[in-house]
Model the fold of this input.
Amino acid sequence: MANYTAADVKKLRELTGAGMMDCKKALDEADGDVDKAVEALRIKGQKGVAKREGRSAENGAVVSLIADDNTSGVLVELKCETDFVAKGEKFQAVANELAAHVAKTSPADLDALLASEIEAGKTVQAYVDEANATLGEKIVLDRFAQFSGAYVAAYMHRTMPDLPPQIGVLVELDKADADLAKGVAQHIAAFAPKYLSREDVPAEVVESERRVAEETTRAEGKPEAALPKIVEGRVNGFFKEATLLGQPYALDNKKSVEKVLQEAGVTLKRFSRIKVGI
Done:
């Protein structure tokens, strides 16, 4: 029997994120040498990367990094297959390292991020593939957001207390207001608006909503003369539901988010909401 202790198994799990039985087997094969066991697990993991490509990665975490002066911030979603891996220190360390890299390099888009160099001679894609191999699950980086402006803040929401945040919201205001930024970000996390304002809704989406509203109203047998007013009311209802500024504010539903911002003398420039797997 190989010469290793429970502490060696624990250390190997912390270094690699691999399961207990895999760690024990690797230590057996490496005759108790932790460094050799790490290498063996990495080799085994790399061989399995291609096999995992077709598997689903719908668990994971959203992490944020906000500058000390709140003038910039990032959100990064890193996905994996199971919540067991998602709540592990190794997985979360990878996610936080990616967020730091985004904050440092400001990539133009996902392709630029994956192709950028996170370590000497190692791209972000290679770094993610290495995590894939080490953790033994499909690991996917496919979304991030980065804002810079007068005031940037984030709100992170946990759907389960033992899991890392599953929803992250990034907001940019035209002036500092920490309480309002937090309140609006919490509202966005809860109500998931699709657009900031009416002006941001694509024309084809509006036209589709108007067409559905008109057809529905006709099918209900409403008087022809009343159609325009009813259709307009339903389209306005869509704007109220789909746009952040039109929604009733979560902390005071007698006012819209737009009204709350106006009363505070603050403009919300933009927002990003990322929910793991959605």
